[in-house]
Amino acid sequence: MGESTNALATLRFDRRIRLEFHGATISSDARLLACRDLDDAMGLTEMVSEHLQESRGGRNVQHRLVGLLRQSVYSRLAGYEDTNDAVRLSDDPTMRVIVGDRGVDRPAASASAMSRFETGVLTQDANEDGLDRLNAAWEYRAMTHTAHRRVILDMDSSESPVHGEQEGGSYNGHFESTCYHPLFVFNQFGDCEGAMLRAGKVHSAHRWRDVLDPILSRYERTGVRRYFRADAAFAKPDIYEYLEERRVFYAIRLPSNEVLQWEIAPLLIRPVGRPPKRPVILYDDFWYRAGSWDRARRVVAKVEWHQGELFPRVGFIVTNMTAGPEGVVRFYNGRGTAEQWIKEGEYALKWTRLSCHRFVANRVRLSLFVLAYNLGSFLRRLCLPKAVRHWSLRSVQVKLIKMGGRLVRHARRLIFQLCEVSVSVRLFQSVLERIGRLSPAPS
What residues does each domain of the chain span? Predict the structure, then answer.
């Protein structure tokens, strides 16, 4: 491997230093190999043939569908958000090993091949839906390796700014930008259970059922208790009725109004005496029926009096849970992690970079970003030792994945000499041992 002649360079501050360039033997993302090992242990990308259809034919097909999907997902996990990055990644030794069936003897897909795959093959109706089914299958595999008696689903929307005349891009008054308005559902472990790209001007709860229904149906078959949390944008009677019919426990923030304020009037009277440094927190619950509701529902109120503030901070939550008011509030506050995970997708993977002109192509891009996010999430929560399990996805990317390595080729084996900086040999071996204990789950 390697170039027959290496360009040499010298540095002025120390003439003893010589620089050589070995583009075909040096990788900046060598520890993606651990993700590939996790992929193999859980049988993730091998499910491609069950959910995606191959529309290519003839003698010009050089890469299998599974290899192209691996390159799309793994490159995004390493921080390469565009197909143009395949210009360099096609010769990267790590990517060659990950993608191909012949090790490093064959380059990975070119930028043009990746573009045709993502904007052509995957944008077909069957494959667009197949990406959602593939993500659901991945999540099923991950949850079989996760001890849990309940699943908590957090739904939230986000902003994906657009530039130029992109289909579906429109002005959103809440975000004060021209954007797309994607909808996400996460579970309590940080996995993205589902996502949908929508036009920018739609309401936050638009098409909530299309995203939530297949997820709840899948968990209904497992028999685990199901919980749902969302902010005030999802305080809609049809959502309450849907969740109650399916015996799903929920806690949804409720916008304040005069009737709700009247119900907790005694709590809105400033406490007598000098206010303490710590906030004075009061709770209450009562039954309330809005004009558009088919029945009365339980509402939990939280009132916070802070030192130096003239008015209290008041919040209402509509719920069908039986826990005490403080327990309901504590449960609802856990949904803040969903916003954190959306930010991780934005910062680590740049999944808001949806730069295709066609709306359907950008929907496919978002689905690929979600697969990459979940692969990183599985690595973080199933394979990292306890000492570093608190790492964010960005930390996993920077400290674990994006570490340099040099490929040394022998007659019978390939050796990657890895850089040991933020991740020690012992820590990396511990990650590989945990991966080894993950046997393929039954289908």
Answer: 24-124+358-436, 241-330
